[in-house]
Amino acid sequence: MISEKMSEMISGSSMIRAMFEEGKKLGAVYGPENVCDFSLGNPNLPPPPAVRKAIISVLDENEETFVHGYMNNSGYEAVRAAIANSINAKFGTDFTEKNIVMSVGAAGGLNVILKSIINPGDEVLVFAPFFGEYKNYASNFDASLVVVPPNAPSFQPNLIEFEKLLSPKTKAVIVNTPNNPTGVVYSEETIIELTDILKKKQEEFGTEIYLVSDEPYRELVYDSETKVPYLTKYYDSTLVGYSYSKSLSLPGERIGYIVIPDKAADSENLLAAANIATRILGYVNAPSINQLMVAKCLEEKADISFYKKNRDVLVEGLSKIGFDCAKPQGAFYLWMKAPIDDDKAFCEMAKKHLLLLVPGSAFGCPGYVRIVYCVAHETILKSLPKFESLYHDIHADRN
Amino acid sequence: MISEKMSEMISGSSMIRAMFEEGKKLGAVYGPENVCDFSLGNPNLPPPPAVRKAIISVLDENEETFVHGYMNNSGYEAVRAAIANSINAKFGTDFTEKNIVMSVGAAGGLNVILKSIINPGDEVLVFAPFFGEYKNYASNFDASLVVVPPNAPSFQPNLIEFEKLLSPKTKAVIVNTPNNPTGVVYSEETIIELTDILKKKQEEFGTEIYLVSDEPYRELVYDSETKVPYLTKYYDSTLVGYSYSKSLSLPGERIGYIVIPDKAADSENLLAAANIATRILGYVNAPSINQLMVAKCLEEKADISFYKKNRDVLVEGLSKIGFDCAKPQGAFYLWMKAPIDDDKAFCEMAKKHLLLLVPGSAFGCPGYVRIVYCVAHETILKSLPKFESLYHDIHADRN
Fold first, then answer.
1. How many CB pairs under 8 A join A and B?
2. Does pTM top 0.90 for this prediction?
3. Contacting residues for A29 by C-beta, under 8 A, at least 6 apart
4. What top-level class would CATH report for the domain B4-47+302-398?
5. 181-240 in A: which are within 8 Å (CB) of B?
6. Which listed residue, of A239, A331, B211, B340, carries a Cα 20 to 30 Å from A224's Cα?
């Protein structure tokens, strides 16, 4: 009785969720304290104290009909203006409230963007490894997902294959930097090369291709020398989907925004379309109290030194054991080569050591695994002996 | 560059929104205090005081990582259980948290429901006059909207035409009672007859047809003798989309829920599908703080005596002038016969008297207009002399 698309999805249901459920089961048998669950990107940091203060002052300073009422579907103008100013100050852009559409997180934002631009059969390019939900977002609008193969070991986008895969049907290219699942930040050099290819191909095809920048992890960068280029400065038709879920550690609140620059192709219509898409997809508008709250926290950030400590201990520990992993520059994901070819089999072995990892196959990149390190520091410490015995098991198997 | 679907929507953009923009323009010329804007269903009541208290106590009583964090995509279990219990107490049903999926308002809920059940080409039936967004929601999933013609003057559903229009392709029937735009509550007799037809036709076709109950106005009923039947009790495959936007007067917050009864066809898969649809449509989950807040306000309601007073003064005033309108039983819409055949022309004439009304054509029912009475009481009082001169203008034209 349910729709065919949903039937397929239920039967092939998300590996990550399945892992999460399995973790609960293992916890019930062995005690949750003995299971190291590295499967779900659920920030475990509290939001900065400014969030609570902001909610209280939003309630104190405004009429309730304003705080909880309808506004323009794109969001409160003052909130959008404050966000535009904050982006401008950080990146030297020149946006106004007109360029900002508030969204129900980045997931909502990406859906609004795709609803606004995709005709059935259009192609959406992503770079493996990629966040599995892109496939579902593209499918929502009957676009074909075209996957650019991975570029190991740097996991910068594979631009040679990218150029070959662009076609007159390409309507959008999604980039996600800092990246889920690799933690890699695309370098400025990469961005320049990537956008040069886009410009060239666009001209060759006589089409417009939108670059969609999925930015839930923009603020999660650990070393001062790592810069995350602001993509609208490199390519006119860049559309940004931002989320406060990780930067303010409030993923349940569903609050983010879209940027549609004036320079983007068909910008006026795009803004009108995004305003309507927000409405008719059923979001209507981003939750009002959360819009007003984030406007008071634009320069705030969860204390990510905690993630950094996890990252450093984990990378050092795993490398010492003998695993092959590079230090992630951003997000809270560690991307590790599976020591056997079959990443799914490796995750099954890890499970026997009460380690829950997600196979790279879930991200279109077999042979690797994703380890989420937004967990308690003790979990990291507790996991290392488990990783060590896992490593030895594999070694023993090989001999 | 934007999608074809969105292009059409922009050019034919919502009459209601256009009216709203026009109101702003008229206000700028004549002074906003002189324009009586009856076009937008934006509740002007404050939420009950319990809402503010609930937000504060949610913040006081819980860890911040809980208040603002991810939960199961269907929503917090305790919130869903509390809602199930509250529905059971009111309507004698037997739902548990398993039957409840939290949603981003009723609009989000309806999209999740349709995403879960619709295959392209399926038919979705609605009863004219109907909320125009249903057309867009159906189009999101490539369903055809089939409109059952209106049944004047009662505006109970036209069941004779309904029976004729049901087909083997019918996948869903949307009902909305209390109704936007008519304010009519479907009687129990109507519901019994309607669901009997559904049962009969389902059997005849060998298909399953879902009855989708859109319930943003359930609590907005003015007279104690008016009962709004709970539809799951009359038809097994009833799916409910509820919203707190109007009952708690917080339309900007985007909070509501879906009910999927165990008795609904393919219920297990539907629940799984709704959980996934919530995620992949980009809502992910209903805003977390708002879930926790409404759970503390389940027996609360905005003070709708205010709407009742508006309704009574307006109906009496308009009838005295000579307009033809029935007293609405619920919601905050008054549905009035246009005194000339052309409802759009009548709205244009009304505009000259600084009265903003929405033509019935926007709801698939020409010859009528919708007057939204969730406005300041002075607006009602101020409008009556304007309606009077409008009436005389029309009369003068006729002589």
1. 247
2. yes
3. none
4. alpha beta
5. 208, 210
6. A239
